[in-house]
Automatic annotation (TrEMBL):
GO terms for molecular function: transmembrane transporter activity. The keyword Transport applies. It comes from Actinomadura verrucosospora. This is Amino acid ABC transporter permease. PROSITE patterns: ABC_TM1. CDD domains: TM_PBP2. Keywords: Amino-acid transport, Cell membrane, Membrane, Transmembrane, Transmembrane helix, Transport.
Length: 217
């Protein structure tokens, strides 16, 4: 089958529309993952053993479960309990919660790298716990883990095609719909692959620059 350039030009608007939903799902899910992951990490360090161990088992369960069953659960099972969520919203929430368990480990590693002496100094100064976290610990920990968090943004982007399982018209779903109408899949699927490669490579370059920057500062 030869490449049809006229057909390629015709399908690009549909693919760009699918890319828009892919970007929305990725960025919105990433915001949830970054914020919720920090909450998980801080709860893991709470003196309350019940809370810390509960959070530990919950995050381990989510992290150890494939993303597809989680998508199905949120989109297909929750409505039977009276909680109906749109496909895009369900995808964003599931991506965010799933990846929050990974970012939690990133934060936990960053917090653990803070020298013990800084914790002791905060105790000696009798600083409120909120100030210890907001003014001393978190600014240093987050700065150290920014490059690793960037890697998870790339991973989330590459996992976004799984959202087609719950009927989100993201990039791959758009390519499938275009191909189904014309019975030509060469151009749409190839373009999807190229778009993922381009975005992933550019993102990887940016993450490497972040790594070099924060390694030298």
């Amino acid at each position: 089958m030869n490449w049809d350039w006229n057909y390629t030009g015709d399908i690009i608007p549909d693919l760009l529309d699918g890319l828009r939903y892919t970007v929305i799902a990725t960025l919105a899910g990433y915001v949830i993952a970054v914020l919720l992951g920090l909450v998980w990490a801080m709860l893991r360090r709470t003196p309350n053993v019940v809370v810390s161990q509960t959070v530990r088992w919950v995050t381990e369960f989510i992290r150890s479960t494939p993303l597809i069953p989680q998508l199905y659960f949120v989109y297909y099972v929750l409505p039977s309990w009276g909680l109906t969520i749109g496909s895009l919203t369900a995808g964003i929430i599931t991506l965010g919660i799933h990846y929050s368990t990974y970012t939690a480990e990133v934060y936990r590693a960053g917090i653990s790298d803070i020298p013990r002496g800084q914790w002791e100094a905060c105790t000696a100064l009798n600083l409120p716990r909120s100030r210890v976290w907001l003014d001393v610990i978190l600014p240093q920990a987050i700065r150290r883990v920014i490059p690793t968090l960037g890697n998870y943004l790339i991973a989330m982007f590459k996992d976004s095609p799984l959202l087609l399982a719950i009927n989100v018209t993201e990039l791959l779903m758009s390519a499938y719909q275009v191909g189904s109408r014309s019975l030509r899949f060469l151009e749409p699927i190839t373009l999807v692959g190229l778009l993922f490669i381009v975005v992933s490579v550019i993102s990887s370059i940016l993450v490497r620059r972040l790594e070099r920057r924060y390694a030298t500062n």
